[in-house]
TrEMBL record:
GO terms for biological process: DNA integration; DNA transposition. Gene3D superfamilies: Ribonuclease H-like superfamily/Ribonuclease H. Pfam families: HTH_Tnp_Tc3_2. This is Transposase Tc1-like domain-containing protein. GO terms for molecular function: DNA binding. InterPro entries: RNaseH_sf (IPR036397), Transposase_Tc1-like (IPR002492). It comes from Exocentrus adspersus. The lineage of its organism: Eukaryota, Metazoa, Ecdysozoa, Arthropoda, Hexapoda. Residues 14-54 form the Transposase Tc1-like domain.
Amino acid sequence: MATLPIFAKFVVLLSKQTVCRRLNEVNLKARRPAKGPKLCPEHRAARRNFVENYGDWNIPEWSNVLFTDESRFCLNMVDGRKSVWRRAGERFNQNLITECESFSGGSVMVWEGFQ
């Protein structure tokens, strides 16, 4: 008797609909991944330290702070939509974040500050 490789003995045919249904049963849905930088342990520690140092500030203390932000708007970027399978509340799970690409063509930088 010829022996089949072990994987050949357990072949199961599944439809896309069956797979989607099973994923849905365990609350996994196709969603857009969050975009942002991967945070290394040092970045996480710095964020935690910031909250510990300034988390109890009140409005008069924060009124002396200038908040700034800058955004880059790409002019020549393709849509590049992707999906990941995740549960609700897992948007910023580091394993599910799509990293932003640098230098993808022409862009415009916008900076703002408010107090």
